[in-house]
């Protein structure tokens, strides 16, 4: 018996065409789920679909969507439901690194853009997804999973990253509020506070940052993308049904160092 079979279920992954999102999408596809990727880059979307199709017995859909745009999210959710009929898990993974400026150099535009993508984007995605989940619950089919990609920076300090840290701390608050509010529908909400993983975003950082991280992480290495596959499947599966409102560090021990 396969304890983690997601056949017949549908998972959405925003920003799922690369990095952490694509790694999680691989696991979901391998477990048999239908996977809908919502991301902005059409070429990367197409490449992700080509990679994911055939990994399991589910289908894969990629939709061009900017999570900062409410109408775009509404259309993408409608298209996902049209293709697969239901949404069981939503990974609010899309995010940006922030403006990368010191606090004295913060601009309203830079701050607002980071919040619009990292925090408001997740909230708007949850808005549209939970409308479906609640309606399904009221028809006798309760349940749903909300999983947010947060960051260890939400609980730790890093230079020149105040907007990013604040956006992810707000995402943690959204997670706890959603868990409390939606529990009556058996919808759970959790956030994964990722530490240092090698991605397109971290590749743009100063090389000294990677060196500093490698010395500070107790396990002395970045996170491995393959390990994210099982993590995503666990949080999408019924085996995580009694876990909600949690903000779980996934960081090799960085937050305790």
Could you outline the blueprint of secondary structure elements for this entry?
Layout: E1 10-14, H1 19-30, E2 34-39, H2 42-52, E3 60-64, H3 70-84, E4 89-92, H4 108-138, E5 144-151, H5 162-182, E6 187-194, H6 200-203, H7 207-216, H8 225-236, E7 247-250
Parallel strand pairs: 1-2, 1-4, 2-3, 4-5, 5-6, 6-7
Helix pairs in contact: 1-8, 3-4, 4-5
Explain how this protein is built.
- With 257 residues, this protein is an alpha/beta fold.
- It has a single domain (10-256), classed as NAD(P)-binding Rossmann-like Domain (Rossmann fold, 3-Layer(aba) Sandwich), CATH 3.40.50.
- 45% of the residues lie in helices and 16% in strands.
- It contains eight helices and seven strands.
- β1 (10-14), α1 and β2 (34-39) form a beta-alpha-beta unit.
- α1 (19-30) packs across α8 (225-236), α3 packs parallel to α4 (108-138) and α4 runs parallel beside α5 (162-182).
- From the spread of the alpha carbons, the general shape counts as globular
What is the number of helical segments per DSSP (H or I, 4+ residues)?
8
Low-confidence stretches: none
CATH H level, superfamily name: NAD(P)-binding Rossmann-like Domain
The side-by-side strand order for the widest beta sheet comes to 3-2-1-4-5-6-7
Give the SSE string.
Answer: EHEHEHEHEHEHHHE
CATH class: Alpha Beta
* Overall number of domains: 1
Distance from N terminus to C terminus (CA atoms, Å) equals: 39 Å
Strand coverage percent: 15-25%
Helix content: 40-55%
CATH fold assignment: Rossmann fold
Cα-based radius of gyration, to the nearest Å: 17 Å
How many distinct beta strands? 7
Which class do the helix and strand fractions yield?
Answer: alpha/beta
């Amino acid at each position: 018996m396969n304890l983690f079979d997601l056949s017949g279920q549908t998972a959405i992954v925003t920003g799922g065409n690369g990095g952490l999102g694509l790694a999680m999408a691989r696991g979901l596809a391998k477990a048999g789920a239908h996977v809908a990727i919502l991301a902005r880059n059409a070429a990367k979307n197409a490449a992700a679909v080509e990679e994911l199709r055939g990994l399991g017995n589910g289908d894969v859909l990629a939709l061009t969507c900017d999570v900062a745009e409410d109408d775009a999210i509404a259309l993408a959710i409608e298209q996902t439901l049209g293709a697969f009929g239901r949404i069981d898990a939503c990974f609010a993974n899309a995010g940006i690194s922030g403006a990368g400026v010191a606090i004295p150099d913060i601009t309203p535009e830079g701050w607002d853009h980071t919040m619009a993508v990292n925090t408001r984007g997740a909230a708007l995605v949850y808005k549209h997804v939970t409308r479906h989940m609640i309606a399904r619950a009221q028809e006798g089919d309760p349940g749903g999973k909300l999983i947010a990609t947060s960051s260890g920076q939400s609980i730790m300090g890093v230079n020149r990253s105040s907007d990013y840290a604040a956006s992810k701390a707000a995402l943690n608050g959204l997670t706890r509020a959603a868990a409390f509010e939606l529990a009556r529908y058996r919808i759970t909400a959790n956030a994964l506070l990722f530490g240092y993983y090698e991605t397109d975003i971290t590749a743009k950082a100063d090389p000294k940052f990677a060196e500093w991280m490698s010395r500070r992480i107790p396990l002395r290495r970045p996170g491995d993308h393959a390990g994210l596959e099982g993590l995503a499947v666990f949080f999408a599966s019924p085996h995580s049904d009694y876990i909600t409102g949690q903000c779980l560090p996934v960081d090799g021990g960085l937050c305790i160092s």
